[in-house]
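Quick illustration, no need to memorize.
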Amino acid sequence: MDDRLKRAIRRSFERAATTYDEAAFLQQEVARRLDDHLDGVKVDPALILDAGCGTGFAFDLLKARFPKAHVIGLDIAHAMLRQAHARHGRPSGWRGILSRFTDSTRLTPVCADLERLPLKSNSIDLAWSSLALQWMDDLEATFRGVHRVMKPGGLFLFASFGPDTLKELRAASSGVDGHHHVNHFIDMHDVGDALVHAGFSHPVMEMEHVTLTYTELNGLMRDLKAIGAHTVKQGARSGLMGKTVWRRLAENYERFRQDGRLPATYEVVYGHAWAGAKDRLEDGRQIIQMKMTSRKGGLR
């Protein structure tokens, strides 16, 4: 992904930080369902990475499940981390001093790019990422970076969006102005392949469709803007949508109306995999262990 597009994505989430929580009901529900995937999984992490933590909604979920763990909340948008601190920051004065002794879950905010993790190799026990990976340009390279920072045997758990996400908006916007209005999302099977190529083992992938409904199209578009998800990675318009284009888009979307409501479908992909043995270099090349022995008596 070029730096210009990366900056555009960062700006979108910076601007959406103060409106994100009130519109992110889908994102919060997905985080809860992702947390459910940890039921029955035997892990006891000391250090957790929440990759793409946003305003820190998942911190409470991770705290409840792993009360002794230290959580690193990483996000590309500094404003999102400020909201996370406002949500989870310790109070001042005596209450703040006492909380250092009563709150065993420590939180460390890190403003950084998930595609360029500034973390120590072999340091993370559990990597968690809820609805952030769909913004990555090179998913396999991102997975290699996550694999690098994880301890051998660590668990990587994530949720992302699949190709059917916003399929109604994609169909309605096709041909209205020659630009893309919905991002391309990677198929679940390709995500699994990328995990294996990055060095992860025993990947498990699941998928479900979640549909939100709206009375009018502008409700959907308003929510997408409020959570910062209105930036299109490739082929986007350089300016605002004109009245004519908007009218065509709205008319096209009307054919999906059912029972008086407009649907917005999301394909949610859940996955987990294990870091396994670290027998690969960061570029994907495999390390082959060779044991050299010598025989007594020399050469004959």
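Residues 48 and 270 are 18 Å apart (CA to CA).
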